[in-house]
Design brief:
Layout lengths: L11 H15 L1 H7 L22 H19 L7 E4 L4 H11 L17 H11 L4 H11 L4 E7 L3 H16 L3 E11 L4 E2 L2 H4 L5 E14 L14 E8 L10 E4 L4 E8 L6 E7 L3 H4 L22 E7 H4 L20 E4 L11 E4 L5 H9 L19 E2 L3 E2 L11 H17 L12 H11 L3 E12 L9 E10 L5 H8 L3 E3 L1 H13 L4 E2 L1 E2 L9 E4 L5 E3 L3 H13 L18 H4 L13 E4 L2 E5 L3 E2 L1 H6 L1 H4 L8 H5 L6 E7 L6 H13 L4 E7 L2 E2 L16 H20 L6 E2 L2 H28 L17 H22 L3 H29 L5 H21 L4 H11 L21 H23 L8 E7 L3 H9 L1 H8 L1 E7 L7 E6 L1 H8 L3 H10 L1 H11 L1 E6 L2 E6 L3 E7 L4 E5 L2 E5 L5 H23 L6 E7 L5 H6 L1 H8 L1 E7 L8 E4 L5 E9 L1
Parallel strand pairs: 1-2, 6-9, 7-11, 17-26, 25-26, 27-28, 29-30, 37-38
Antiparallel strand pairs: 3-4, 3-16, 5-6, 5-15, 7-12, 8-9, 8-10, 13-14, 16-18, 19-24, 20-21, 20-23, 22-23, 29-36, 31-34, 32-33, 35-36, 37-40, 39-40
The chain binds one RNA strand through β6, β12, α11, β15 and α15.
Length: about 1150
RNA sequence: UGUCUUAUAGCUCAAUUGGUGGAGCAGCGAUCUGAUACGUCGAAGGUUGUAGGUUCAAGUCCUGCUAAGACAACCA
């Protein structure tokens, strides 16, 4: 006969360790896959973490979510493979290496540098760095109970992985979705490199700088378009810039479509020439003081500070579009596209400037985009060193070959330039005595002023990004890049996105949906060192190009190149095509610098590899295919949709435009399919005050410590139950403690209770031969019914990816129903008397509840659930290998559940009256009264009467109605039905009802209706429109709760008093048994010193006392020596001595 | 700056299609217990971030604002 294990105390941490050991020995994870039908797969993709950082508590949360659904689907009988993966490329890794080696980008491959490191060594360091914390990750994965196969992970730097990525790119190229273009990117001329947004977000990169800004006049070519009379002089657009050095590269002006513009007749503030300017109406008073509205044009003399002005015309931005203006600084003409016209830009605002934006497509991302959309050309009159091209030359104000930003010059250069400027400016009488170096911006402004094209100049302080290495301001500069033409597939991506089940939905429709609507082409290029090289080789003239899609192709092409004499040896010489072993693929390296030493040949031309690496996001987005080395191996898994798309993925919401997008984009563009059907985007883990966790602030929670201290189950449960996965979680260790006490403590005790008594009885559940449910008592059938409802509910929540609701439902069941009602009320059945049918049924019922709960909770609390399940069952099979129980509808009895709820409520109300009246539960009372308004209600309570009576220690329940006693009733309106009926009269009806409650109640009770006359209309209140609630029985002690009212008879007869005293005695004896350390089965001898106040109570209840306390012999004695007995206070007034002895 | 999310008791969260705000924890005061680090009972705690709007009726729908966060951008 099986004995159920008993434990001294709950140690969740130890349970985790024990079960983990069991899993390893039992190979439970492997079994959970191998025992499932491979034709019933449920596909999960693991988003690869980067092992160059330590795992944090947020990883535990994110991985718990993944684990929950994989385990749940396994319970449902699906086969869920989980291949782990590592993300190994990218900037954070490069930065990590640079930090640990104490080097910067400039040292890499630069032999002149003191800290020179070859690209080869650098990449070796990266390869090592990236797996730095692999063991920590494996450790936390095991300890938190995350089941993922780490024995054969996909690793993005491995050649087989890279080969699949290359194949995908080649495929895109074949579909004509790959092209070379340029984008405007932050660029550091001093460092000679582009900067990523990550680098720009380094602390201290954005700094306040003072710049010379200018409001500039662009002369309209043909005034006649405006249909405005009497335009004196020329008409100009006003535009403001903080970077006057970009003005020579201006090719367009942008206006806002719906912005109102005005034509203002006035004078040029510097030259005094009459002119008309155009600017946004909202910004008029920034340039023309309101005080000057009344100034007369006739009175104005050039040089006057107060300038008269007059609005002579209006236009909307859209009206201005297409108007041509004269080039501002005609150093160079654009060679391609349209130029020097007004166009509409969605980014134009009236928060500052003039509402008209100067567009230099080469030096601003918005500028570039809007120019491209409108087919405008660009001028790039600055080179990569940050200097003007030689053509931008002015005889007086200089420029050509000058740095455009003052910060790029060193002191010596500045001095030389200053002397040059002083000489020429003074010679041309522009400035009398130049004292300091004038920046390019300042001198451009001077030139414009000279030419009558300047309207206003000022210095302006704003924040501007700086290069984190050189401390110099960055330029936005057009850089060559390779693009994926994702815009071409935009509509399809939007369409397919609508078939994806997003949790929460708003992330899919909102954040992700909007992102797709505004999709730009995907910039693939990264000018870095550690990543997958772009597999494109181009001839110098750009005419010939080869896109490589496999190692085999590359080997062949190199052989060809050798034959044609552009290569000497083949780095892939040892590689055997068709052999997919790791060894074979480790005979070469596709990374830099090796890739760059490969030259190919086509049509007699030598081809060189495009120097860039691909965006690491492409790496991870390619994982569905690359993890199985598609299409070189496992072709059918993808093509036959066996392992694609995923049924489920989950990552942080920060991945919306990261992994979620790249997976989607690559799948849509290559396979015309979604990459995942269900996606959960989880929120962040914040500290308990709602701040972001960071090492710097010292508020980061160490996952190892937490798991060790609280165990994985409580930690996981807390994180899942506390917030929806997509809400941010305020992580508070105290919350884990609470979960530990409340859920796990309660379950542990419930199990302990079960094991204690079934072992005492030598009882074990015979799973195959249980008492039919219909033969069990109401309480049993009730908890079984509740359990069915729980199974139904929890299954639904898991299926809907709402684990927090599943967890909360389980918590409620365990605490409210199982422990604090079922077990409490069943206690006596377990520990009294011999084995009986009822006792067996009680054991079986509790056993079923506990095993089912273990199953339901096992996805969230995998260790504890398995521990409890295995304790309860005989064959030591893991709960994770079981099949989920199905809802047994035939055991569900909703009306029974309702009845029981009434019993719980009534009990609680009676207890509350007792409390108010200071009557202990141990004191029996004679009766409670329940006013009843209908028979159905009475029947319901009648069915649970006995439970209530024993729970609250009362002898009887009387149902009373109006004919027997007076009942005070309240009226509550049902706004839901009445609202529709009354509409506007609702308030009046409510007021009427407040004053005439009694009238309405009696009418409805008699006739079922009550008519209110209001403003000539009749409103008929019917039964469904009101709720009639009994609230009081005059002369009784009552309590009410919603529609329920209970009254308690608080009179005590002598008999009741004695019974109460007897119960007190029982309680004292029980306490003494407990203190003496007796077993629950020990029989005892009790001696009580006689006491006139007590004797009758004991004599009249002798058998009760004896049976409750397992007393074989109770003696009332004259004198009990205080040495052998305890002094006992039975109540405030009665004290006596009692002794107990164990009988053998 | 844009897109999106969130804001309810001291804390963590609930509140069906709009129908008149509830739990748990903590604290206070009682109490029960032969499963209990449990439970039970009581009082207290709220202008539902803020200002408007729609409606007979708004925590819920709409708009503005404030704060926090994520992502994207940083521009004239």
């Amino acid at each position: 006969m099986k004995k159920y294990p008993e434990y001294k105390k709950l140690d969740l941490s130890q349970i985790s360790k024990d079960i983990l050991q069991f899993w390893e020995k039992d190979r439970t994870f492997e079994k959970s896959i191998s025992t499932r039908d491979e034709n019933k797969p449920w596909v999960f993709y693991e988003g690869p973490p980067s092992a160059n950082g330590m795992p944090g508590i947020h990883h535990v949360m994110a991985r718990a979510i993944k684990d929950i659904f994989c385990r749940f689907k396994t319970l449902q009988g699906y086969q869920v493979k989980r291949k782990a993966g590592w993300d190994t490329h990218g900037l954070p890794i490069e930065l990590g290496v640079e930090k640990s080696l104490g080097i910067t980008k400039e040292d890499i491959g630069n032999e002149k540098s003191k800290k020179y490191i070859s690209v080869e060594d650098y990449n070796k360091a990266c390869r090592k760095e990236v797996m730095k914390y692999t063991d920590k990750w494996e450790d936390v994965t095991a300890k938190m109970g995350y089941w993922v196969d780490m024995s054969d992970p996909y690793i993005t730097y491995e050649n087989r992985y890279i080969e699949s990525v290359w194949w995908l790119l080649q495929n895109l190229s074949k579909k004509d979705l790959l092209y070379k273009g340029f984008t405007i990117q932050p660029y550091s001329p001093a460092a000679g490199t582009g900067l990523s947004s990550h680098e720009l977000n380094q602390p201290g990169c954005y700094r306040d700088v003072k710049d010379r800004t200018a409001t500039v006049q662009f002369k309209v070519k043909d005034n006649s378009k405006f249909k405005i009379q009497n335009l004196d002089g020329d008409v100009y657009f006003l535009a403001w810039t903080t970077t006057p050095w970009t003005l020579p590269s201006n090719t367009a002006l942008a206006v806002g479509k719906d912005i109102e513009y005005v034509f203002v007749k006035s004078f040029n503030p510097f030259s005094g020439t009459p002119q008309t300017v155009i600017l946004a109406k909202d910004l008029l008073n920034k340039y023309f003081s309101e005080k000057h509205t009344d100034l007369k044009f006739e009175d104005y003399k050039p040089g006057d500070k107060n300038i008269p002005f007059k609005i002579v015309g209006h236009a909307k931005g859209s009206d201005l579009a297409g108007i041509s203006y004269e080039q501002l600084l005609p150093f160079v003409q654009p060679t391609d596209g349209d130029a020097f016209k007004v166009l509409v830009g969605d980014f134009v605002t009236t928060t500052d400037g003039t509402g008209i934006v100067h567009i230099a497509p080469s030096f601003g991302a918005d500028d570039f985009r809007v120019a491209k959309q409108n087919g405008f050309g660009a001028l790039t009159l600055v080179d990569k060193r940050g200097k003007f091209l030689p053509e931008v030359q002015d005889g007086v104000f200089l420029y050509g070959e000058e740095f455009v930003k003052e910060a790029y010059l060193n002191d010596v250069e500045k001095q030389t330039e200053f002397e040059k400027q002083k000489k020429i400016l003074e010679a041309n009488h522009k400035i009398k005595d130049l004292k300091v170096y004038l920046s390019v911006d300042e001198r451009i402004v001077l030139k414009l002023q000279e030419e009558g094209k300047l309207f206003k100049k000022e210095t302006y302080e704003h924040s501007y990004p700086h290069c984190w290495r050189t401390d110099k301001p960055v330029l936005y500069y057009p850089l060559d890049s390779w693009f994926i033409k994702s815009t071409a597939m935009k509509d399809r991506m939007i369409e397919l996105n609508k078939t994806i089940n997003w949790k929460p939905e708003a992330t899919g429709t909102g954040r992700f949906g909007n992102w797709l609507e505004n999709l730009n082409d995907w910039n693939l290029s990264r000018s870095r060192f550690w990543g997958i090289p772009i597999p494109i080789w181009t001839s110098e003239d750009g005419a010939e190009q080869i896109v490589i899609g496999s190692a085999e192709e590359l080997k062949k092409e190199i052989d060809n190149a050798i034959a044609k004499g552009v290569m000497q040896t083949n780095p892939l010489a040892k590689f055997v095509p068709g052999n997919f072993s790791k060894e074979n693929y480790d005979t070469f390296d596709l990374h830099k610098p090796y890739a760059d030493t490969i030259y190919l040949e086509k049509n007699g031309k030598k081809l060189t590899r495009e120097p860039d690496l691909i965006d690491v996001w492409f790496d991870s987005g390619a994982m569905p295919y690359a993890q199985v080395h598609y299409p070189f191996e496992n072709k059918e898994l993808i093509d036959n949709k066996k392992y694609f798309p995923a049924d489920f993925i989950a990552e942080g919401v920060d991945q919306t435009r990261g992994w979620f997008f790249t997976l989607h984009a690559i799948a849509v563009m290559n396979f015309d399919s979604v990459a995942y059907k269900n996606v959960v985007s989880n929120g962040l883990v914040l500290d308990k005050n709602g701040n972001k966790m960071s090492k710097r602030l010292g508020n980061a929670v160490d996952p190892f410590e937490t798991l060790e201290k609280y165990g994985a189950d409580a930690t996981r449960w807390y994180m899942i139950a506390n917030a929806a996965p997509w809400d941010n979680l305020k992580f508070d260790l105290e919350g884990i403690g609470e979960v530990q006490r409340k859920l796990f403590g309660t379950l542990y005790n419930t199990y302990g209770f079960f094991s204690l008594y079934s072992n005492v009885d030598g009882f074990a559940v015979d799973e195959k031969n249980q008492t039919p449910i219909e033969n069990r008592i109401e309480l049993d059938r009730w908890i079984i019914s509740k359990l069915q409802s729980l199974v139904e509910e929890v299954t639904l929540y898991y299926n809907e990816y709402e684990p927090h609701r599943a967890a909360r439902a389980i918590e409620e069941f365990v605490d409210e129903h199982l422990s604090n009602w079922y077990v409490r009320l069943s206690r006596r059945r377990f520990w009294r008397g011999e084995m009986s049918g009822d006792k067996i049924a009680a054991y079986e019922t509790l056993h079923t509840c506990l095993t089912t709960v273990s199953q339901l909770m096992s996805p969230i609390a995998p260790f504890f659930a398995d521990w409890m399940y295995q304790n309860l069952t005989i064959n030591n099979q893991s709960v994770h290998l079981t099949k989920l129980v199905e809802v047994k509808k035939q055991h569900q009895d909703k009306s029974l559940e309702e009845r029981m709820e009434l019993a719980q409520k009534i009990s609680s109300m009676v207890l509350s009256i007792r409390k108010k009246e200071n009557l202990k539960v141990r004191q029996p009372l004679q009766r409670i009264q329940i006013p009843i308004l209908d028979k159905v209600f009475q029947d319901k309570i009648d069915a649970v009467k006995d439970l209530i009576l024993s729970e609250v220690n009362v002898k009887e329940i009387d149902f009373v109605n109006e004919s027997q006693t007076q009942i005070v009733k309240n009226l509550k309106l049902n706004f839901k039905t009445l609202g529709k009926k009354c509409g506007q009269n609702m308030k009046a009806v409510q007021a009427f009802a407040n004053d005439n409650g009694a009238k309405i109640i009696s009418s409805i009770e008699k006739t079922g209706a009550f008519t209110i006359e209001l403003n000539g209309a009749n409103i008929v209140l019917e039964v469904e429109d009101v709720e009639i609630i009994p609230v009081d029985i005059p002369g009784w002690k009552v309590a009410n709760n919603g529609p329920l009212t209970v009254a308690l008879d608080v009179n005590l007869s002598e008999e009741l008093k004695n019974e109460g005293l007897a119960r007190e005695v029982v309680n004292r004896i029980q306490n003494m048994r407990k203190d003496a350390g007796f077993e629950v089965t020990d029989k005892i001898l009790v001696k009580i010193q006689q006491n006139s106040e007590l004797d009758n109570a004991i004599k009249n209840n002798l058998s009760y006392i004896c049976s409750e306390t397992l007393t074989n012999d109770l003696q009332l004695v004259q004198n009990l020596s205080a040495a052998n007995a305890s002094k006992i206070e039975v109540d405030e007034l009665i004290t006596t001595l009692i002794s107990i002895e164990k009988l053998n």
